[in-house]
Amino acid sequence: MSGNCPVGVAVDGTYCWVVNNTSNNVTRIKKSDLTTTLIAVGSNPVSLGDMTGWAYDNYAK
User: Fold this and answer.
1) Are 2 and 39 in contact (CB under 8 A)?
2) Is 28 strand, coil or helix?
3) Cα-flanking dihedrals φ and ψ of residue 55, to 5°?
4) CA–CA separation, 47 vs 45, rounded Å?
5) What stretches of 1-61 show up as alpha helix (H) in DSSP?
6) Contacts made by residues 16-25, CB under 8 angstroms, sequence distance 24+
7) Which residues contact 60 (CB under 8 A, 6 or more apart)?
8) Nearest to 4 by CA among 14, 19, 15, 33
9) What's the confidence (pLDDT) of residue 3?
10) What is the Cα–Cα distance from 51 to 61, expressed in whole angstroms?
11) What is the Cα gyration radius of the chain?
12) Which of 31, 45, 32 is nearest to 3 (CA)?
């Protein structure tokens, strides 16, 4: 569902965002229907201090 080497996730009211470090992109997953979109962000989008943890919201389908 996401790209290569997912290293972080963020959740908002509509989407889950997954940072894919070695793919140089971010996967946007729409929570209502699980539609995915890959968004290019250039080389090495993640530093050691960015998006290296987990985010949680209480979304229920």
Assistant:
1) no
2) strand
3) -120, 150
4) 7
5) none
6) 19/45, 19/46, 19/50, 19/51, 20/45, 21/45, 21/46
7) none
8) 19
9) 74
10) 24
11) 11
12) 45
> What is the structure's pLDDT at 57?
47
Q: pTM (2 decimals)?
A: 0.64
Percent of the chain with pLDDT over 90: 21
- 9-24 residue pLDDT tens: 888 889 999 888 787 7
Both structure tokens of 35: 């539609």
pLDDT in tens, 26-59: 899 999 999 999 888 766 544 545 555 555 444 4
Using alpha carbons, select from 49, 2, 37, 48 the residue that is nearest to residue 23.
Answer: 2
Residue 5 structure tokens: 């080497």
